[in-house]
Write a structure and sequence with these properties.
Number of strands: 5
Largest sheet: 5 strands, parallel
CATH architecture: 3-Layer(aba) Sandwich
Structural class: alpha/beta
Order of helices and strands: EHEHEHEHE
CATH class: Alpha Beta
Strand order of the largest sheet: 3-2-1-4-5
Strand content: 15-25%
Shape: globular
Helix content: 25-40%
Radius of gyration: 14 Å
Number of domains: 1
Distance between the termini: 20 Å
CATH topology: Rossmann fold
Number of helices: 4
């Protein structure tokens, strides 16, 4: 079973949900993806969580993990996955470390990157350089 992670602009429009669902269906049915690692920083992450929760009804075998960048401060955040060693990472480097951790574990990366600057663009390029299958919903298809 393969793993997928996500990177996108925090101001991603909700209209991307249609393309996101289609990409997820392709990954689950044709690419043997059953595990999903999702951050919790912006709108694209929220849309990915929403789409995956909806798809669990049809594909109950899929596993979704919300990956935190920071040590949980509130009890209800205990459901989040915190990569090993993150508790000692300075806050200014936590998101970078978490994102690189997710890329290292992923076979596929689904992105919503419209502009060539910012965190989403940076990590999409990191994934490409590491040979991951990158799906940018702002472009046509998978690379």
């Amino acid at each position: 079973m393969k793993t997928c992670t996500f990177f996108g602009h925090r101001d991603c429009p909700e209209s991307v949900l249609v393309d996101l669902r289609q990409a997820l269906r392709e990954l689950i049915e044709r690419q043997d993806v059953g595990a999903f690692l999702v951050g919790e920083q912006g709108m694209f992450d929220r849309l990915a969580c929403r789409a995956l929760e909806e798809m669990k009804g049809e594909f109950p075998h899929i596993r979704v993990e919300i990956v935190a960048a920071y040590f949980p401060r509130r009890k209800e955040e205990g459901e989040r996955v915190l990569p090993e060693g993150m508790e000692s990472v300075p806050a200014r480097y936590a998101i970078d470390r978490r994102n690189r951790w997710m890329i290292a574990r992923a076979d596929h990366v689904v992105c919503y990157v419209k502009r060539g600057w910012g965190g989403a663009a940076k990590y999409m390029e990191v994934a490409r350089r590491r040979g991951k299958a990158v799906w940018n919903l702002c472009e046509s298809g998978k690379e």
